[in-house]
Every structure is written in structure tokens, then in C-alpha cells.
From TrEMBL:
This is Uncharacterized protein. It comes from Micromonospora radicis. It comes from the Bacteria.
Length: 91
């Protein structure tokens, strides 16, 4: 039996997410248990993703990405979907 994950909120590129320590679980080069800020480049909506977590690709706010053509995302962080809903509702 195939299951369909819950729909994700629309997270437009350029949105700044201010993630609390419990809003995310993994990110290469990030310190667990700390707050993280990420300017969203995209959300990876995988077919078999969890209903609780999703991968967010983006840039650190201090990154000069708008001035560099085709600059790949600086970071990828596993974020709670509930945190995305909360952040977008607050903006």
C-alpha cells in the first residue's frame, strides 16, 4: 500500500527561516542544539518523505549568493514541517 505524505506549505525562495534548536535535526556543518538561520533556496519534497521532516536547501544569511550566478546552496538542513508552517504563518 502506497501512502501519500501530507502536503507541504509553499515556501518561496528567499524566505528567511529562523529555526529554534528543536526545529531541525541535522545539517552538515551545523552544531546540534543551536538555533539556525537559513535563507531558503528550495525544499526537497521527496515521494517517500516523512510527515514530520523535510530537507530545506539554502544559504546562510551572510552568504553573498545573490551576487553570484549559479551559486549552489551553502547548506541543507532537515527541518520539522510544523516549523515551516509556524514560520510562514508568522510572516
Amino acid at each position: 500500500m502506497n501512502r501519500t505524505p501530507q502536503p507541504l506549505p509553499d515556501v518561496p525562495p528567499g524566505v528567511l527561516l529562523q529555526l529554534r534548536a528543536d526545529d531541525w535535526s541535522y545539517g552538515r556543518g551545523l552544531t546540534p542544539g543551536t538555533s539556525v538561520a537559513v535563507t531558503v533556496a528550495g525544499v526537497r519534497d521527496l515521494l517517500y518523505r516523512s510527515d514530520e521532516w523535510v530537507w530545506v536547501l539554502g544559504h546562510r544569511p551572510e552568504c553573498a549568493y545573490p551576487h553570484v550566478d549559479r551559486h549552489p546552496p551553502c547548506m541543507e538542513v532537515r527541518v520539522r514541517i510544523a516549523a515551516l508552517h509556524r514560520q510562514l504563518a508568522a510572516s
